[in-house]
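Shift notes (night). Ran Cupin domain-containing protein while the centrifuge was going.
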Amino acid sequence: MNIQALIEHLGLEPLPGEGGFFKRVHSFMQEGRLLGSVIYYLITEESFSSLHYLSTDEVWFFLEGDALDQLVLNSDGSHELRRLGPLGRKSQPLSIVRGGCWQGTKLHGIKGWALCATTMCPAFEEGVYKQGTVELKGKYPQCPDIGRFLAKEG
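Came back to this:
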């Protein structure tokens, strides 16, 4: 299936700011309150999850496609470069990003696509999101990878 057919089949839309394509597929509700959410999230050669901050935990599940690199900038100043992808190819199919970290995810290679699902509890809200900028290079000087995970505007 080509990327455009996949976008249409799943009803994905571009995600402003962060990048990639998404669709909320489930909302966890209890007594009329939104507790959590699940989205499909597609990363392509042109559009990826640029560095951003969330105050709550987010769990990433690799579904299919090509392997991804996920950069996590921890609140203690350390950083991790994780491989998310098919099990057995030096990658893991699941990644837990703790709230209070900066994160960005893009293709490991230069070509292809990857379909993931992410879950957040509590559910995503605009107020918990901050877009990463070049200022992160100064806050994490020991991390050489920040530049490639910033949005083109950053």
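The chain has a mean pLDDT of 93. The longest helix spans residues 3-10.
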